[in-house]
Amino acid sequence: MAEKFDVVVIGAGAAGMFCAALAGQSGLRVLLLDNGKRPGRKILMSGGGRCNFTNLYIEPAAYLSQNPHFCKSALARYTQWDFIDLMQRHGIAWHEKTLGQLFCDDSAQQVVDMLLNECRAGQVTLRLRSEVSGIARADEGFVLNLPQGDISAAQLVIASGGLSMPGLGATPFGYKVAQQFGLPVVPTRAALVPFTLHKPLLEQISQLSGVAVPALVSAENGTVFRENLLFTHRGMSGPSMLQISSYWHSGEYLTINLLPDIDPLAFLAEELNAHPNQSLKNTLSKILPRRFVECWHLLHGIPECTLKQLTPRQQQEWVLALQQWRVQPNGTEGYRTAEVTQGGVDTRYLSSKTMESSQVPGLYFIGEVVDVIGWLGGYNFQWAWSSAWACAQAL
Ligand code: FDA
């Protein structure tokens, strides 16, 4: 005889733990399964160990999906303020770092402990190191095959995440379940991911590895982010590059403005006034790291002259070069280092109110496995919380 549960949630990550806890607290008998040996592994890794758990400025425009409207309902019904309230009820101190990004003061472990405590309050049964080898539709729900024996579930929630960071337990399980039940999967690709560069440029800028500069980075579709750019030994990373990676397609160029916060011609005029015999290189070193200036000289040739010798045309040229640096990435580092997976279960086949499959009653998909991703900065966890909450209301 199969062991019986009202709800089985597969994936004890952010979305799965939260949904299981809420369902349990509403009186349902809930089983939460995960393939790993600990729950919430990505939460623990996130935000440099402090978990950037939400953002003050959550809005649907910060999310990407083939259907940009899909995320609206869940995000509006369970907001960042609701999650902040939950954190406060558990006595977890937090702070805003930048751009509305909220982090734990202490450790991401507090978020995992909070979710586990919520699961305990809902008497959720948690089974780790559990992999489902098969799922079949039954008269009243689903039968799941596990090595320990079959389990029957009236309702099934898939919260197994995307493909990013296989080292943290990511598998294509959720996409396979979707396909088994006839739900299409929007093709996936790595997002919020560092770029790799073609060899010639990579060799030219190799000495910049570890240097960070503020930058305004634009994709060919016009999307722009102004955050730091970090040079790495493989290419380019940092928040501006991770953000723009979600909008970049193979073969496209990025345009990088390395002087996002100053009026360079006004700056030059002031410097010319104060230090007419200063070299252009030394002048540039006042607004950019010296290592970068040396490297830029190798790339683009900074005129070897003093400010008073610089012609207006030369001024225009170097300003333009720094403001419109066009770079064609070779590719990205892929799922190995990506924070999220773009694409996933096609939202046209899910209810935006409940996350339930429109064709298979009782089957739900929540969190990153769905074709919804957010910007860097707490937006992806908020999607996990909001979609989990929306689902739990319907169970
Ligand atoms: P998640 O991936 O969290 O959980 C899925 C769970 O399912 C995992 O526990 C996995 O082991 C399990 N699983 C997979 N296959 C299975 C199978 N076959 N059987 C059983 N279980 C299975 N976002 C943000 O908003 N702020 C941040 O600071 C960060 N930081 C960050 C850092 C790093 C290093 C990464 C990789 C990602 C982030 N993110 C983030 C993104 C965020 O972690 C991500 O969007 C959410 O964890 C998604 O939550 P889910 O619950 O949908 O999937």
Tags for this model:
Elongation Factor Tu (Ef-tu), domain 3, 31% helix, seven-stranded antiparallel β-sheet, 395 residues, seven-stranded mixed β-sheet, alpha+beta, binds dihydroflavine-adenine dinucleotide, FAD/NAD(P)-binding domain, 21 strands, single chain
Largest sheet descriptor: 7 strands, mixed
Provide the β-strand percentage band. 15-25%
CATH topology name of the largest domain:
FAD/NAD(P)-binding domain
Helical stretch tally: 13
Q: What's the architecture of the largest domain, going by CATH?
A: 3-Layer(bba) Sandwich
Strand elements, count: 21
Rounded to the nearest angstrom, the distance between the terminal CA atoms is 24 Å
List ligands, each type once: dihydroflavine-adenine dinucleotide
SS-based class = alpha+beta
The general outline is elongated
Helix content: 25-40%
For the record, what is the CATH homologous superfamily label of the largest domain?
A: FAD/NAD(P)-binding domain
Tell me about this structure.
It contains 13 helices and 21 strands. The longest helix has 16 residues, at 379-394. The protein has two domains: 3-190 and 341-394, FAD/NAD(P)-binding domain; 194-333, Translation factors (Elongation Factor Tu (Ef-tu), domain 3, Beta Barrel), CATH 2.40.30. The chain is an alpha+beta fold and 395 residues long. Helix 1 packs parallel to helix 5 and helix 1 (14-25) packs parallel to helix 13. Strands 1, 2, 7, 8, 9, 10 and 20 form a seven-stranded mixed sheet that branches. The protein has a seven-stranded antiparallel sheet with strand order 17-16-13-14-15-12-18. The chain has a three-stranded antiparallel sheet with strand order 3-6-5. Bound molecules: dihydroflavine-adenine dinucleotide (FDA). Dihydroflavine-adenine dinucleotide binds at residues 10-16, 33-36, 41-42, 45-47, 51-52, 131-132, 159-161, 164-165, 169, 171, 173, 339-340, 367-369, 378-381, 384.
